[in-house]
Write a structure and sequence with these properties.
heterodimer; A: about 110 residues; six-stranded mixed sheet; four-stranded antiparallel sheet; about 0% helix; B: about 110 residues; mainly beta; seven-stranded mixed sheet
Chain lengths: ~110, ~110
């Protein structure tokens, strides 16, 4: 069975500063990895995903994440955040031999002016 | 393009009452999921259905039942609601290949008093 650990529950950050959200996973088989974002009182939206190929994946709004198999990590980064990036971020993993999609506990990002 | 539709959006139940949460998707996806979201615990999988006619338990199935009525619809039933089931419930669906992302509904906020 797979599992996900998000290492930071809350990350306060100033506008235009960089941010990194840490995610580690556990699985005995190959995995697919996802980052989702949830804005207040909304559902979850996909931010980016790693399925195969290049280990660095990017989203259209400036986020990127790097799959590191040796460290079993999939950390999310953005070089310069905006107020509108204030949200909760979830890392998720799906094992290649299973239909389950498992989520971490979430990281709340609060961007301050 | 509705995506994943959940009804109702809000519900208040008394302890011991029963209710069914409805979910429908119009993307021709084979796999569907029910999660509950609680503060600090992320999304926990209640039940999932890999394909029409199959259902499987997730991490927290106790107190819930599901029905995969057809390919489009996946309902979650609380037979005898308890205060511990106060939560936000999300339905999600995925395409028929496991290496794809999930699409989420807007959630049902359930309060059991």
């Amino acid at each position: 069975a797979q599992s996900v650990t998000q290492l930071d529950s809350q990350v306060p950050v100033f506008e235009e500063a960089p941010v990194e959200l840490r995610c580690n996973y556990s699985s005995s088989v190959s995995v697919y990895l996802f980052w989702y974002v949830q804005y207040p009182n909304q559902g979850l939206q996909l931010l980016l995903k790693y399925l195969s190929g290049s280990t660095l994946v990017e989203s259209i709004n400036g986020f990127e994440a790097e799959f590191n198999k040796s460290q079993t990590s999939f950390h999310l980064r953005k070089p310069s955040v905006h107020i509108s990036d204030t949200a909760e971020y979830f890392c998720a993993v799906s094992a290649s031999n299973d239909y389950k999609l498992s989520f971490g506990a979430g990281t709340t990002v609060t961007v301050r002016a | 393009n509705a995506g994943v539709t959940q009804t109702p959006k809000f519900q208040v139940l008394k302890t011991g009452q029963s209710m069914t949460l409805q979910c429908a998707q119009d993307m021709n996806h084979n796999s569907m999921y029910w999660y509950r979201q609680d503060p600090g615990m992320g999304l926990r999988l209640i039940y999932y259905s890999a394909s029409e006619g199959t259902t499987d338990k997730g991490e927290v199935p106790n107190g819930y039942n599901v029905s995969r009525l057809n390919k489009r619809e996946f309902s979650l039933r609380l037979e005898s609601a308890a205060p511990s089931q106060t939560s936000v419930y999300f339905c999600a669906s995925r395409a028929d290949r496991i290496n794809t992302e999930a699409f989420f509904g807007q959630g049902t906020r359930l309060t059991v008093v």
